[in-house]
Amino acid sequence: MATYETFASVYDAVMDDSLYDKWTDFSLRHFPQKAKGKRLLELACGTGIQSLRFAQAGFQVTGLDLSREMLDLAQKRAQAGKQSIDFVAGNMLDLSGLDTFDLVTCYSDSLCYLADEVEMGDTFAQVYDHLAEGGTFIFDVHSTYQTDEVFPGYSYHENAEDFAMVWDTYADEPPHSIVHELTFFIKEADGRFSRYDEVHEERTYELLTYDILLEQAGFRDVKVYADFEDKEPTETSARWFFVAKK
């Protein structure tokens, strides 16, 4: 799984901020009624923007991420927003050090960074074990249409005063997998720009695979939606949303 070492410093600048509003709105629509005040675990919380949104909405939030660099930014964000959020460095494949939660989320296709179906199934099992009875798990992933038709050949360039980046995406060998190649030019204190390169690999699966893995983990009530809306996926949906109940 990627740790976003360099990406942490420019991640917020290149993210579409409106997506956090959409993730928040989708969550609030699909959390149980009277869920506010409940314990919420956000997996792959990154720099904490979504965690802060959940805290501001009235939840007791814990954010977990592999990247300590991102968690440092997240903690500063929470302090600036005057919110008490527990940020934990850790791997979603092993949640053994955490308590149970009423709600678990994992957004921004973060599960697509897991290596294979085994890791996906293990993560679902970890989430199930750390959900309270009646708890809700919500996550999103790339659709197979997104990985197979949209991403291959994708290119994004960003230029700002203190950084520049080139983001190119290619199809990878495993089915429904892609490789993001990122090059950053970041302005240092002396005014010079330093180059950094990172490679991020993502993979998704057929809808049926997710259903089977969730069922094997113990989830029985699973609903699937698409593209932040309460509608069923179509052949050209870009992002799938799963709402699973324990």
UniProtKB/TrEMBL annotation:
Superkingdom per UniProt: Bacteria
InterPro entries: Methyltransf_25, SAM-dependent_MTases_sf
Key word Acetylation present: no
Entry keyword annotation includes GTP-binding: no
Keywords: Methyltransferase, Transferase
GO terms classed as biological process: methylation
Name of the protein in its database record: Class I SAM-dependent methyltransferase
Stretches assigned to the Methyltransferase domain: 41-135
Source organism per UniProt: Streptococcus cuniculipharyngis
GO function terms (MF aspect): methyltransferase activity
